[in-house]
Each structure stands twice: as C-alpha cells, then as structure tokens.
Design brief:
Length: about 240
C-alpha cells in the first residue's frame, strides 16, 4: 500500500481497498479524458476500460498528458495502458481501440462509473442516453473547448448549466430533451463565454472495427493547456467523491 500511502492518510485504508474493486469506463482519451484516466489510476481505481480510436498528433502536444514528440502516430489506448501500468502495476486495463457508436459492443451496465469525454455530437448523445436508461452513473464534459480560464469550470446536473447558449452545450441539451432527458446527468461545464480566432471545420471519415463508416463535419475548437486538463481532474475528483458516499 506504499504506492497509495498519501491517499490513505486522507481517506483511509478501507476506502483505498474499496477503490481497487471499482471498474470505470473512460470514453475519449484527449485533453479531458486523458487526465481523468491518470487521476483515477493515481487514486487507486483497480479497473479501467479505455475507449479511443485515435493516435497522437502534433496538435495534441499543447494539452494532452500522453502526447510527446516521441510518440506521435502511436495509439492513445496503448500509450495509456503502458503509462497507467507504470504507475500502478496491479491496475487492470482493458483497451478498446475503436470509435464509440451505437454499434460498438460495449456493456455499459458493468461499470461503476462512465466518463464521457467524447467530442462528437452523435456519439455523445447516444452514450448519455444509454447510461441514463441503464441507470449507470455518468459524468460528461461540456465546455472545455474554446476557453482559457479553468477557474470558470464547475460541476452540476445538466439541468443546472448556467450558459446554455454555448452552441455545443445547447445542442446536447436539445438532443437529450428530445429523448425525454432533462436531468440526472452530471456535467463539468464552464461559465466562460467560448471564443476562437477563427472557425475551422473538416470532414471526419472514420471506419470502425466493425466496418461501419462514420462521417461528420467536425468543428475544430481552440483548446488551451489549462481548461481540458482541469476539467479532466474535476471529473476524476467527482467520481472519487461519489464513490466515498
């Protein structure tokens, strides 16, 4: 237990041992989800399932904890598996190197908590709707892009989001409301008004492991080193806080 001795000084040996039995799924290993994964591993969560289809790119270097010049082009799932086992050799890591869609064979009901760090609208909505229907606790990132001030982040129920006019947030709220979901999802949101010097979009073309073709117009957000990382830490903190109840 020396690895987690400083944790134990705060929350005790019994809870530390309890964390080793917890199973958490993180979808999206970018600027937000990567920090969530690392904080949960350092807290002592025993089982993590990591879902991401992407590789490290040069544009990730400014904010993603896994991104280094030496690993550009490598799979994020594999990099995180190696990194987190280098922190805690006893941790059980399951990696799914694939794009999350309704066709991905993933039993969300098995998890103690689900982390939504997805940045594609359709996938995000499907994940949140599925967790809500199954009664699986989920926390969702809303408000890391196009922002610079981490002190403007806060945690709340989706019904309590203050800045509902931000385009991405308003679209998520609208789509969930159409599905009868207006509350019961915890989010990390921001009070800061989103800003970008210019609007850039590109056509995303993804072929999943099952052969499904996914295409959508992706808006490339401004993303600084400060907000995504802090949002990821907020998410990990909230999960640990809830597991201590």
């Amino acid at each position: 237990m020396e690895l987690f001795s400083r944790n134990i000084l705060f929350w005790g040996k019994e809870f530390q041992e309890n964390l080793a039995s917890k199973n958490i799924c993180i979808l999206g290993l970018g600027g937000v989800g990567g920090y969530t994964a690392e904080m949960l591993a350092r807290a002592g969560v025993g089982k993590l399932t990591l879902v991401d289809f992407d590789t490290v790119s040069t544009s990730n270097l400014n904010r993603q904890i896994i991104a280094l010049q030496s690993n550009i082009g490598e799979k994020k799932t594999k990099l995180f598996e190696n990194r987190l086992k280098n922190i805690n050799p006893a941790i059980e890591i399951t990696t799914i190197d694939d794009f999350y869609s309704e066709n991905l064979a993933l039993d969300l009901a098995q998890f103690d908590y689900v982390v939504d760090a997805i940045d594609s609208m359709r996938s995000k909505i499907h994940l949140l709707e599925t967790c809500h229907k199954l009664g699986v606790p989920v926390i969702s990132s809303m408000g890391a892009g196009n922002r610079v001030d981490p002190t403007q982040l806060y945690i709340c129920d989706i019904s309590e989001i203050e800045n509902k006019n931000a385009p991405f947030v308003s679209n998520v709220i609208y789509q969930l409301k159409k599905r009868g979901i207006e509350t019961g999802i915890t989010v990390v949101a921001s009070r800061e008004k989103p800003f970008s010097q210019e609007k850039i979009s590109e056509l995303e073309h993804i072929e999943t492991n099952s052969g499904e073709i996914v295409e959508f117009n992706k808006i490339i957000p401004a993303s600084t080193p400060f907000v995504a990382s802090t949002a990821g830490i907020f998410m990990a903190f909230y999960i640990i806080k809830e597991l201590r109840r």
